[in-house]
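Q: I'm writing up a methods section and want to include an example of the input and output format. Could you take the sequence below and give the corresponding predicted C-alpha cells, formatted cleanly so I can copy it straight into the document?
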Amino acid sequence: MDRARRVFFNLRLPDGPAGFVVVEAGRISAIGGPGEALPEGLPIDLGGRLIVPGFVEGHCHLDFSLYGDAWQPYRAGPNGFVVRERVAFQRENLAQAAPLAERARKHVELSLAQGTTQMRSHVMVDSQIGLGHLEVLLGVRDVGFALFPVLVNTLLLVLAGSDPGPLPGLERLLCWAIGALAPALLLLRRPADVWSLLLLQTPLRGRRELQRRLSRLQATPALAMATAGGAALGLPLLWWIDRQAAVASPLSPFSSCPRLVALLLAALLLALMLWQWQQLVQSLWLLSRNPATVAGTTPLSLAELEQQRLSLGLPLLLPEPLQLMEASGVAPVAVEPQQRTEEAEGTDLDQQVP
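A: Here is the clean output for your methods example:
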C-alpha cells in the first residue's frame, strides 16, 4: 500500500456525492464518482462528511465580541436608535466585560472550530480607545495563529515520519509523561520566570522593583491549576495528533526517522508547548491585576528569584553604569598654542593661491 497516497471515501462534495478523493503531496490528484472502485492508497473513511474549502468571515468585530462572557441584555434608548447613545451603552457593557484578549480569543476559537480559516475584523479606533484595541487583537492574532499552530504542526510532521509500534497507546503515554507531566511538576514547583523568553532573559540584577513585584504575584493556586490543566490537555492532543499523523506523511521531512527518535522529539515539543502555555496564561493574568494590588506587593529579592523561579535563556547585555571620574584637586593649566594668532591670520597662504 502506498502511504504517500490518501484515499478519502464516504464523503460529500458541495455539488453532490462523490466516491472518493485522492490526495498526494498535499494536493487533490483525483476525484472519483459514486460507485467507482477505490484506487491504491491509504483509505480514510470520512463518515459521510461534507468537504468544503475553509470558510471566510468577511465582517466581524472581535474587540466588541461578548462571546463566552456574561449575557448582556439589550438596552433601548429613550430617543430610539441614536448613535451617540448606542456608543455610550457599548462602552458601559465593555467596562464590565472580561478582558478583550480573552473575549477575542474565544471568538477566534469558536470560528476555527466551525471551519472558518480567514477572518476580517473591524477594530474601534477613537479619541478615547486610541490604538489599545488594535494592539490587543494583534497580540491575540500572533499568539493564536503563529505560536501554537507552529508547534502543533511540527508535532504532526514529526510523528508522521514513523509508523506506530505494537503498543501505540503505551508509547503515547510515555511520551506525554516525559514531555508534559515531568515539566509540569517542575513548573508547579518553580514557575516559569515571566521575564524569561526561553532563549533570552532579563538579567536578575537588572530587574526593576515593578518586575520583582509582578514576579511575586505569579505564586497563586489559579496559575498552578492552569499549568496542571495544560499538561493534562497535552495527552489527548498527543493522542489525536499521532492517530492523524499518517495524513501528513507525504509532507514530513522525518520520513526515515526511527520511532524512538520521533517520540523524543515529540516530548521536547510538548515541553515547549507547556512552557509557552504557562507564560501566556500568567502574562494575561498579571496584565489584569489591579495597579493598587501590584503596588502593595512586596518585591521578590534576587535570592528568592533564583530559588523560586525557573529562568532560562541567555541574560541580555547589561553593562555596568557609567562611572565618571571625580575631578582632581590639581588647578587647571593653560596650554600655550604652538602658533600665535597673529601668525595664523597671516597672508602668506593667501599669496600662494593664484
